[in-house]
């Protein structure tokens, strides 16, 4: 049951991160992947500062922060590739 709950939190976090960074959604599957990887990345970032998520809202915030950081990294890398190919 917790697995489904984490998938739902990852999906919402990925969707919100896509709205914040790009301004539009990228599709259900991509949002889910971004949210799940963002949750892992957010957990790692929060643990560096000694912070831990508590409850559903804390998990959502942590996954959202990680997903936004992930999208910023991907966008910076893709921008550098585009400039190198031109």
Keywords:
mainly alpha, 84% helix, 86 residues, 0% strand
Give the DSSP E fraction (strand runs of 2 or more residues). under 5%
Q: Write down the Rg.
A: 14 Å
Query: What structural category characterises the helix and strand content?
Result: mainly alpha
Total helical elements: 3
Share of helical residues: over 70%
> Residue ranges: pLDDT <50 for 5 or more in a row?
none
End-to-end distance, in Å?
49 Å
Please, what is the average pLDDT?
82
Structural account:
The protein is mostly helical. It has one domain (2-79). Helices cover 84% and strands 0% of the residues. The chain has 3 helices and no strands. The longest helix is centred in the C-terminal third of the chain and has 31 residues, at 55-85. The N and C termini lie far apart (49 Å).
Summarize the topology.
Blueprint: H1 2-21, H2 28-48, H3 55-85
Helix pairs in contact: 1-2, 1-3, 2-3
Give the structure's gist in a few sentences.
The protein is an all-alpha fold and 86 residues long.
